[in-house]
Amino acid sequence: MTQQPVATSNKLDAAVLKVAGVVVLGAIMSILDVTVVSVAIPTFQSEFDASYARVAWTMTGYTLALATVIPLSGWAADRFGTKRLYMVALALFTIGSGLCATADSIGELIAWRVVQGLGGGMLMPLGMTIMTRAAGPHRIGRLMAVLGIPMLLGPIGGPILGGWLIDTASWHWIFLINLPIGVVALIYAQLALPKDAPEPSESFDFLGMLMLSPGLALFLYGVSSLPEAGTVTDTEVWLPMLVGAALVVSFVLYSFRPRHPLLDLRLFRNRNLTLAAVTLFVFIIAFMGAGLLFPSYFLQIRGESTLTAGLLMAPQGLGAMLTMPIAGMLADRVPVGRTVPFALVLIAAGFFTFTQLGTDTSYLLLCGSLFVMGLGMGGTMMPIMTSALKTLSAAEVARGSTLVNILQQIGGSVGAAVMSVILTSELNGSRVIPGVTDPGTGAPVTEAQLAIGVQQQPELAQQLPVPPSMIERGLDFAANSFATTFWVAFALVLLTFVPAAFLPRRREPSHLLDGEAGDEQPRTPVPIH
């Protein structure tokens, strides 16, 4: 591919900053959209009269779509050109956002979230490629600092922005707000990004993609159907799980054959990459899955507004903002085996508080625990990613980055599905209220469902002939259901200490900056979002 001329100065000149502005706009849209939706899940539940497990697919579908297009973006950039493809990704994300706002059912919303994810998944890999070419490898550190701004602000600003939009307008606006940003980004990209000449290179593993993505989606769909079906013997549960598992196993067996597989599983021969990938995967399942539940607790158990719930989530982002830059600096000097376990201790300590949740747990304690968890998260993600890629040869870095990024998205999808299924199953165990049915579906109403409804709409307590003690009992049951789900997440966090104990404790030579790198640049992003 034709390379853009790069400057030799270490400073980021105006031309590079102009290009970086385009990429940061795309990153802001992509990252904010993950965190904004987290506070809207209870709203979607009441709006579409759907279970938590079903609504969680607005996140699961989005992250599975991200995982699908991450490996596709490198091949497509070579074939169609980075500028053209980046603008297509922006347009797809923006159109998907507009369509999400028109959804009349939870099925429609999930479908349009997948469209959004297909665009959003390409924004970060392509953005990194564009910035690397504009500035050259010697200024990657400075560029990462620029791209780190939306990565740090997203977890803080997303829930607050989402809460404010839902409270002052409606849930539709968490998607509609992307439309003007997307239009500005498209015009900016057309004017600022340099033209490039596409030159098709290696072939793309379409067969692998057709096995992995549908396989994961089917398997997780079967898992998420379990609370409603009530038994694993239900056809809607076991059939998609069986077909999905067969597709995933077939993908693993097949992926060792092609010269350029969708995921190069041969890289797992590298001990450091394997340990880092396993640590990251288990950690992401726990952290991302449970992360969806934090705002829901504030909204459904404590009866807070969505804006307040977003503000209560801010300490976690602030904690990560403090430690992420420090962890990035230490990653090059101190072996991750000496730093990551300490960060995991902070996460475990913060998580433990949520296993003790009640209906009146101190906000000071909860916000302090979120802050401690944020400190731990900032010291975990980037060092593990660095460790995974550090000892790979230059020719393997792009494939290694793709592998770890996809594992992260798959972990997020699995976490969202599993934690939502556990919570829904726990809530379904509440007592049914005799003679009270859901006016929309005619289904029986449980004490926990009624208590959550009253917390969000206090007027329900006057409309229904039930004693206050029943509502109080239902609320206690719901709080215990959240606590039980957090116990599972806490156990998974403890499990990450096993692979983390084997992470490198001595400095090892890095191949990322050696002479064999040549002109090859990673096509996929080093940062994780």
Automatic annotation (TrEMBL):
The record's InterPro entries line, in alphabetical order, gives: EmrB-like (IPR004638), MFS (IPR011701), MFS_dom (IPR020846), MFS_trans_sf (IPR036259)
According to the UniProt entry, its GO molecular function terms are:
transmembrane transporter activity
Instruction: Report TM segments.
Output: 12-32, 52-73, 85-104, 110-131, 143-166, 172-194, 206-225, 237-254, 275-294, 306-327, 339-357, 363-382, 477-503
SUPFAM superfamilies attached to this UniProt entry: MFS general substrate transporter
Compartments, record wording? Cell membrane
Q: Which Pfam families match?
A: MFS_1
Question: Cell membrane: is it a keyword of this entry?
Answer: yes
* Signal peptide annotation: none
Provide the membrane topology annotation: Multi-pass membrane protein
Key word Signal present in the record? no
Its keywords, alphabetically, are:
Cell membrane, Membrane, Transmembrane, Transmembrane helix, Transport
GO cellular component: a single term: plasma membrane
Please identify the protein, giving its name as recorded.
Answer: Drug resistance transporter, EmrB/QacA subfamily
Q: Which organism is it from?
A: Micromonospora sediminicola
